[in-house]
Amino acid sequence: MTNFSIEMLDDLPVILTTYFEDYGGSDDVAAFSKQLIPMFDRATEKLYHLIDMRRATLSFNDIMTSTDYCIKRPEGFANHANFQAFALITERKMFQSIARGLGTATFGNLNVPVVPTVEEALDWVRRDCAMRQTA
């Protein structure tokens, strides 16, 4: 059994990932990437990646491993040609601080919204899509 789920939504260009309580460590990050990257590969448009972390109990080391694997490495999802943006779904202060840290030059100046619910994340995607269409 995996410690996460990944699904492509039908009505929006969104991949929704949910981390479960036991998610963490390099094995989970590798398994997560192995499932996620082919979804970006098959995409015919740029995708948003929403990460539901409300159930996650990640350690600081887990977070750093995941950040390195997913954002800093060239093969990470944040560097994929079909990646548009991502948001975190959580109310935990630690993850909110991490999202702010991703906005630094060290992590590529990523703007990572943090919202408390999936519905608010989907609303953000809808607004961002509309803004990009009018730009």
Characterization of this structure:
- This protein has 135 residues and is of the alpha/beta class.
- The protein has a single domain (4-134), classed as STAS domain (Transcription Regulator spoIIAA).
- The chain has helices spanning 25-42, 60-72, 93-101, 118-134, and strands at residues 4-8, 14-19, 47-52, 83-89, 114-115.
- Strands 1-2-3-4-5 form a five-stranded mixed beta sheet.
- Helix 1 runs parallel beside helix 2.
What does this entry show, briefly?
This protein is α/β, with parallel strands linked by helices.
SSE blueprint and pairings:
Blueprint: E1 4-8, E2 14-19, H1 25-42, E3 47-52, H2 60-72, E4 83-89, H3 93-101, E5 114-115, H4 118-134
Parallel strand pairs: 2-3, 3-4, 4-5
Antiparallel strand pairs: 1-2
Helix pairs in contact: 1-2
